[in-house]
Amino acid sequence: MALARSLLHPAAKPLVFVASLLPFAWLVFGAATDRLGANPAQYLSRATGDWTLRFLCLTLAVTPVRVLAGLPTLQRFRRMLGLFTYFYAVLHFLAYAWFDQGFDLGEIARDIPKRPFILVGFAAFVLLTPLAATSWNRAVKAMGARRWQALHRIVYAIAGLSLLHFFWMRAGKNDFAQVAVYGAILGVLLGWRLLDSVRRRGMRLRAAAFPGAPGPRSPRVRG
User: Which of 4, 6, 112, 172 has the fewest beta carbons closer than 10 A?
Assistant: First the structure.
């Protein structure tokens, strides 16, 4: 299959890396050339949040697309996309810390618990941190595949918190169109994972009852 072969090409990963940096490059260029509108600080804060949510959706979409399209080579891009999710989340938090609070750590610590939409966004950021820190093959070996997979299941909670954060941000202007789009995307992706988990559990139970029956294939964790 031509697409599967192209995904294995040595240039594929560098191309995905460069493409993932393009939003950041545009933001830097826009800030340097004063092209971010009347309120550049607000634009940067919202844009970095939007790209965090987009990359989260892309990361969660890798496994369903890989399975449904029969493209196992897609799995090699999941780690990179996950790390870019964290990269844009860091930029989003830094935009808040800088433009809203002037990097005043005391004020940040007081402000986060006071505003629910910031609290849930910060909670998502905190939960995302150990996933980024353990995305390397050495971490998988050190933790063991089962514990590593259990830890990385908190991505479902992160997705929910991120969507709630986005919802509360848009609620102030009664603008829920994009919230509905992201909610539908995440709902489909997480719903597929739930159904796949039920299917795998059924296969394991069948394999236990009938030792000759094929069991579910264990997912590879390399990226």
Answer: 172
Distance, in Å, from the CA atom of 162 to the CA atom of 92, rounded to the nearest integer, reads: 12
How far apart are alpha carbons 173 and 170 in whole angstroms? 6
Residue 65 backbone dihedrals phi, psi, to 5 degrees: -65, -40
pTM comes to 0.88
Give CA–CA dist 217/5, Å, rounded.
22
Please choose, from the candidates 153, 182, 152, the residue with its C-alpha nearest in 3D space to the C-alpha of residue 165.
182
How many CA atoms are closer than 13 Å to the CA of 129, on its beta-carbon side? 8
Length of the chain: 223
pLDDT of residue 15: 96
Backbone CA torsion sign across 200, 206, 211, 213: negative
Report the range out of 20-34, 135-149, 172-186, 200-214 with the highest average pLDDT.
20-34
Contact between 51 and 23 under an 8 Å Cβ cutoff? The reply is yes
Q: How far apart are CA 60 and CA 196, in angstroms?
A: 13
Dmax over CA atoms of the chain, in Å, equals 67
Q: Are 44 and 81 in contact (CB under 8 A)?
A: no
Please state whether 47 falls in left (phi above 0), alpha (psi between -120 and 50) or beta: alpha
